[in-house]
Amino acid sequence: MFSVAIVSLTLLAFLLGLILGVAAKYLKVESDPLVSQIEDMLPGSQCGQCGFPGCKPAAKAIAHGESEVTICPPGGRSLASQLASLLGIEVDLSKVVDKPPMYAQVSEATCIGCTRCFKVCPTDAIIGGPKQIHAVFKDACTGCEACVDVCPTECLQMHIIETTLSSWTWPKPNTKALPPPIAA
Amino acid sequence: MKLFRFKGGVHPEANKIATGCKSITPFPIPDRLYLSVQQHIGAPAKTEVEIGQHVLKGELLAASQGMISAPIHAPTSGVVVDITEHTAPHPSGLPVRMIVIEPDGKDTWTKLDKIEQPFSLTPEEIAARVGEAGIVGLGGATFPSAVKLNLGKDNKIYTLIINGGECEPYLTCDDQLMRHRAEGIVDGIRLMLHGLQAPRALIAIEDNKPTAIKAMQKACEDIESIDVVVIPNLYPMGSEKQMIHLLTGMDIPAGKRSTDIGVLVHNVGTAYAVHRAIRYGEPLVSRIVTIGGKAIREPQNIDVPLGTLVSDLIEFCGGYKEKAERVLMGGPMMGQALPTTDVPIVKGSSGIIALTAKEIEQQQMMPCIRCGSCVNVCPCGLLPLEMANRARKGDIEGAQEFGLMDCISCGSCSYVCPSHIPLVQYFNYSKGIVASQQKEKTHQNEIRLLAQQRTERIEREKIAKAEAAAKRKAAREAKKAQKARELTS
Predict the structure, then answer these.
(1) Which of A93, B95, B161, B360 has the most crowded CB, counting CB atoms within 10 A?
(2) In this structure, is residue B177 part of a structural domain?
(3) Do the chains contact at B94 and A163, CB–CB below 8 Å?
(4) Contacts of B392 in chain A (CB under 8 A)
């Protein structure tokens, strides 16, 4: 009786294993879930500062270990540490420069209306027409500097987004006042 | 009436005697008024006047824009001399846009829209008038009152609570208002009840204000729908969540509004402002401010035109008799330290408290001894020590798991902490981080959408171009074929 059970269960196990093996081969999921997970974490502005043509290729490269988790400048330190914890790797954050959030602004005195900048803007944040002064929508600008590189008259400048009453938050309380622990 | 005591709370020294017995002093028109366009929660008001323009008292200076906003009106007649950036009455000391008025001394009102029969107005009209008068929550939260009155449309309001708790030490402005302007407050409450179509209102007053209680009881003697409830003196009684719990026994679910459980809370000052706005058509252009603290020579309650500089007020009260170590706007528990006294009074300024070094008693912070005092006094039933530990390490998510977003920043925990740990400061810091993270996330989603739309647009253009090219090619070929046919024929 006992041997029948062993034999039937073993057969069942083999059979199920075979089905699973075949299914894994024929019903393979094409995309890597890790890639889409990383892509969701990236800023998604397709700015190209990492050297890849967009966020998806960058996510692929990060997932396959072909590039560092620190390649995304707009993401800064917080993104790098999030990616590192997702992939379970150690990362040296000291090299990552946390750039303050910036935005581009057109200097109206030198803009010649060449339309080059708004053709490269990844978020369509620049408006204007041929031979008309262009302007940047501050809220839609990601500070990727793509426009700065193509401007022939250097009229696009990057500015730091300043803290206003609505974006100000309380600083961390100063804990330096904490006295050293008393030795027993 | 049965009261439902909430857990926790503290009894800070009241210090209300210095200003509590003096009546409300009117304030002479100052030399200059600074009207901030951001005196409320929500979008800043949009400037509607130009430099050099003469305005009358009550004339619109800046209009509300967006869903949650409030207009600003001229507190006296005079000339707009400047529209500039000036230091905001805010702990950051950052500048904000302000309309500067030089009064002409005549204090002439603009034409006011008085109403003889306010109860014939529809609820929508009442809310609209309250909105046009620029009334915001005068307890200090400065949430636009019209928006709150309109919330009653989605949820039936069963109880309107009028908050006369004034649990903050030093402050007596609401106490004075109830003593001297009880009739106006009760009329304002009746108008609000009409606007909300609510059946009853409760005026909650702490038992340390017997004169105000008597005055209010007398004013609403013959009105069935309004009752005065005497509540125990305990901080933070004036907090919305705690007051609703005390009076109704109900709790607002986390992340929901009081209207979701059929209750709405308004401050007594707001009720009075509603009375002035509906009956007399007067917009909100002044408020009662308590000038107190042991550093002030003559502490008192003053009816101040909005936009008056704090330094002018302190001078009016005889200046300092001792060195003021810190000047607060609001009470000592939840008020905010001012970076300078060169800032104007705004709609939410309930008090200006100048504290001496002795009153502050700043002490060295020590390590947490896990005594649990903060847990005992937390009126929200949270574990402040655990939250602060996580916030200190930068683990904001961990702090959120311990209920950071349910904290009302009342400061009871910091008040009792024997180690003088800045607990509430840690929570304010953490909440700021959560808020900016959320903002960053929405911004990122918008950016993503923009980038996606751009790719789609480029794709569309490419297809359109290819189609146009194909069409041209077809036309060319047709022409060629025709030519060939012509040649052969």
Answers:
(1) B161
(2) yes
(3) yes
(4) 175
What is the model's pLDDT at position A174? Answer: 78
Two tokens, residue B155: 């949820």
Q: Which residue has the tokens 């702990």?
A: B91
Give every residue of chain B whose pLDDT is below 50, as ranges: none
Is residue B9 domain-resident? no
* Structure ipTM: 0.82
Domain count, chain B: 3
B 418-457 near A (Cβ less than 8 A): 422, 425-426, 428-429, 431-433, 435-436, 439, 443-444, 446-448, 450-455, 457
Q: How far apart are CA B335 and CA B90, in angstroms?
A: 10
Residue of B85, B92, B392 for testing the chain A interface, max A β-carbons within 10 Å: B92
Residues A117 and A82 in one domain: no
Q: CA dihedral defined by A29, A30, A34, A40, rounded to 10 degrees?
A: -110
Measure Cα distances from A164 to A135, A143, B96 in Å: 22, 18, 8
Question: Which pLDDT belongs to residue A67?
Answer: 85
Q: Does A182 touch chain B (CB under 8 A)?
A: no
A165 → closest Cβ in B88, B425, B431: B88
pLDDT at A136: 92
* pLDDT of res. A176: 62
pLDDT of B108? 92
pLDDT of residue B87: 94
Find the domain containing B321 and state its range: 291-360
For A18-60, give the DSSP string: HHHHHHHHHT---S-HHHHHHHHHS------TTSSSSHHHHHH
**Residues A77 and A114 grouped into a single domain:** no
pLDDT (tens digit per residue) in A87-129 = 888 877 777 777 778 899 999 889 998 989 988 888 889 988 8
DSSP-assigned letter for residue B405:
G
Decide if A177 and B365 are in contact by the 8 Å CB cutoff. Answer: yes
Residue-wise pLDDT tens digits, B350-408:
999 999 988 888 888 888 999 999 999 999 999 999 999 999 988 899 999 999 999 99
The answer to whether the CB atoms of B451 and A44 lie below 8 A apart is yes
Q: Report the pLDDT value the prediction gives residue A184, as an integer from 0 to 100.
A: 40
Residues B264 and B296 in one domain: no
Last residue of a domain, one of B327, B360, B393: B360
Interatomic CA distance for residues B474 and B469, integer angstroms = 9
> Cβ separation of A179 and B433 shorter than 8 Å?
no
Cβ–Cβ contact B358 with A under 8 A: no
> Quick check: is B3 in a domain?
no
